[in-house]
Amino acid sequence: MVPAGFPVTYDLPVANRPATVQGVSIAIQILAWIAVILRLWARIKLIRRPGWDDLFVVLACLSVTWGTVCVVLETFWGLGLHLFTIFEYTKSPPDQDFYAFAIYCKLLFLANVSYACSTTLIKLSILFQFRRLFDRRNHPVVNISCLVLICITIVWGLFFALVTIFGCHPIHKEWDVLVDGNCILFGSKVAAKFYPAYAAHTASNMCLDILILAIPIPSLATLKLRKRQKSGLIGVFSIGLIVVICSVIRLWLIVKTRAGSYPTQDETWYAAPIVIMSCLEVNLAILCASMPIFWPYLPRLSFHGIKVVREVIIRNETRRDRPYNTSTNDGSEPTDLSGLERTNSDTSVARLKRQDTAENLRHYYKDSHVKGLVVGDLEMQQAQTMEERDPAGKPGHTAEAWAEPLELKLKRTRT
Question: Could you please report the per-residue DSSP string of 108-134?
Answer without folding.
Answer: HHHHHHHHHHHHHHHHHHHHHHHHHHS
